[in-house]
Specification:
The chain has 136 residues and is an all-alpha fold. It is built from 5 helices and 2 strands, in the order ααββααα. A hairpin with a 2-residue loop joins strand 1 and strand 2. The radius of gyration is 15 Å and the shape is globular.
């Protein structure tokens, strides 16, 4: 399972780096990263919030690393693994509007990427965190 964990950690770190880029004003890829309706973004997170998300993604990568590579991870780390599992699975399910497998907005750039990449990735991460936490 090590290659899968390393791939997940790498994807989390890359996603965090994208968020840092966006936090400091980068625009590339935002039309695919934020949900829209009628050509308008449904939310516009500020730089600080986007940077906090980047830090959270780095923390997620650290939890995955700790759960897999530490011989006996702390109870807090195992609990974090379970919490992340639930959060990523909930993200994959979505809000039944613009995000997740059950969204009703399906024709925007974000919706296409969400269906093909973001929601499946979140579901896989949710399952991975559950496996890691259950074997810790």
């Amino acid at each position: 399972m090590t290659p899968i964990v390393l791939a997940a950690i790498t994807l989390l770190i890359l996603t965090a780096l994208f968020h840092i880029y966006w936090a400091f004003g980068g625009e590339a890829g935002l039309n695919r990263a934020l949900p829209t309706r009628d050509g308008k973004r449904l939310f516009n997170p500020g730089g600080l919030l986007t940077f906090v998300v980047a830090l959270a993604l780095f923390a997620c990568a650290f939890v995955a690393y700790s759960l897999h590579f530490d011989a006996s991870p702390a109870k807090l780390t195992v609990s974090a693994g379970w919490i992340l599992s639930v959060l990523f699975i909930l993200r994959a399910v979505g809000d039944f509007n613009a995000v997740g497998f059950f969204k009703i907005i399906t024709s925007t750039d974000f919706a296409v990427y969400d269906t093909k990449y973001f929601s499946p990735l979140c579901l896989c991460l949710g399952i991975l965190y559950a496996l890691l936490a259950s074997h810790a």
